[in-house]
Amino acid sequence: MSGATFMLADYIESAKETDKFSQSAIQPILLGLFGEVGGVMSAAKKHKREGEAYTSYRQAVEEEFGDTLWYFTALCARLNARVDNILSLASNNGKYSTNDLPSGAISQVSSVLELPQLDDTLLTLGRAAADMLSISTTQPDVEARLVAFADAYLHALQAAHLSFAEVVRSNLAKVRGRFLVPDASRLPTFDDKFPEEERLPADFEIVIRERKNGQSCLQLNGVFIGDPLTDNIRDPDGYRFHDVFHFSHAAVLHWSPTFRALIKHKRKSDPAVDESQDSGRAIVIEEGLSALVFSHAKLLNFFQGQKGVSFDLLKTVNQFVDGYEVEACPLKLWEDAILQGYSVFRQVRANSGGIIIGNRGSRRIMYKPLLEKT
Q1: Which of 66, 244, 246, 362 has the most other CB atoms within 10 Å of its CB?
Q2: Are 370 and 353 in contact (CB under 8 A)?
Q3: What is the pLDDT, as a whole number, of residue 47?
Q4: Residues of the chain whose pLDDT is less than 70?
Q5: Which of 100, 358, 101, 370 is nearest to 210 (CA)?
Q6: Under a CB-based contact definition with an 8 Å cutoff, are residues 247 and 256 in contact?
Q7: Do the Cβ atoms of 4 and 164 come closer than 8 Å?
Q8: Rounded to whole angstroms, how far apart are CA atoms 126 and 129?
Q9: What is the pLDDT of residues 273-316, one digit of tens each?
Q10: What is the pTM of this model?
Q11: What are the domain boundaries of the chain?
Q12: Residue 108: beta bridge partners?
C-alpha cells in the first residue's frame, strides 16, 4: 500500500449519514462486517484461481475492503469509539509510520518496506472478524479487539497492494450515491448544450396501445414510433410494454439512447457523442440492461410493494453502463428510475396500454389510462 493522505474525520461523518441501521443495533453491523471480510477473501480466491482472467479483481477487492471499512466505522460508532483513533492506535505498533495533524482530521499511513503475504493476512483478518462477532459494549477489552481488527485490516490492505485513500474515496462515493437523495442541481443532464432537435424532450406523452393480435404499439403526438412488439417468450409476461423503462430512463436519468433513436433525436452535431453515446452499442447496452432488470423484477412481482432495489442489482447496473455517460448518475437515481418505471409498467400491463407522461424537469414519469381501447 503506497503512502496516502485521506480525510478520516470527513469519512466518519459521511458514513454516519449513510448508516440506515438503528444506532442500538449491533448484530446487523457485525454480520455485515463478517460478510464483507468474506467478500474480500472470495475476491482474492478468484484472483488466485483465475489469474489474469479475473480482470475485475482490483475493483472487486477494493470495493470489498471499502465496504468492510464502512461496517467497521459503523461498529466503532456503536461501541463509543472513533475509527480514526482505532486506526491510529493500530498503526502505532511500529509496523506503519503515522503522522497525525493536531486537528485529528487527517492521517497519513505509509507502508513498511516488506509486504506481508496476502493469504496469511487474509486468514488473520478472517480470525479477527470472527472474534468481533461476540463483541459488546460491556466487555473491558473492546478497544483492544477493535485495534486488533484494524491492524489485521491494514495488513491485508497492504498485502493486496491497495491504497487506503482510494478505498476510502471510492467507498464514500459509492455509499453516498446509493443511500443519499442526490442534489437535483448537481445531477447530470447530458444534452443541454445541444440544439433542441437533438435533445430528449423536456415533456412527453407516449400512448401505448395493444392491438387485437397482442402487439404493443407506440404513438408520440399521434405518430407511430418504433415497431410493434410482442413478448417474444413462451409464457407471456408483458415485456411487450418494456419501452416504458426507456421512457423512465429518459425522464429520470435524462438518458436513453433507445428513446433518442425512436424519435430521431441523436446528437449528430457532435460526431464523437453520436458515435459513442447514441449509436448501436449504446442502444444494445440499454436494451440489455432493461432485460436484465426485468428478469430480476419478475421474481419480485415487478417490484410491487417494494420501496427499494437491492444493492447488488444496482451495482450490476452500474457495471453494465461503465464507460457511458449515464455512469455519472448516482445509484439512488437509478433506483428511482427503476421503481418509477415499474410502477407505470404494472399499470400499463394491467390495462393493456395507457398514456405515459414524462417530465425531465421533475424527473418523474406517470401513468394515465386510455379513454378508449382499440
Answers
A1: 244
A2: yes
A3: 67
A4: 1-7, 47-56, 93-116, 372-374
A5: 370
A6: yes
A7: yes
A8: 5
A9: 999 999 999 999 999 999 999 999 999 999 999 999 998 899 89
A10: 0.79
A11: 4-180, 185-368
A12: 5, 99
Neighbours of 53 (CB within 10 A): 9
pLDDT of residue 100: 32
Positive or negative CA dihedral for 106, 107, 110, 115?
negative
* pLDDT reported for residue 98: 39
How many CA atoms are closer than 13 Å to the CA of 332, on its beta-carbon side? 14
**Alpha carbons 170 and 43: distance in angstroms, whole number:** 17
Q: Where are the beta strands (DSSP E) in the chain?
A: 4-7, 97-100, 106-110, 203-210, 216-220, 223-229, 353-359, 364-368
List alpha helices for 212-330, DSSP H: 243-248, 257-263, 271-277, 280-298, 311-320
Contact 248, 367 (CB under 8 A): no
Residue whose entry in the numeric block shows the C-alpha cell 436513453: 256
DSSP state of 253: I
Phi, psi at 177, each rounded to 5°: -65, -30
Quick one: which of 328, 348, 178, 174 has its CA closest to 246?
A: 348
Which pLDDT score is estimated for 196? 95
Distance CA 161, CA 158 (A): 5
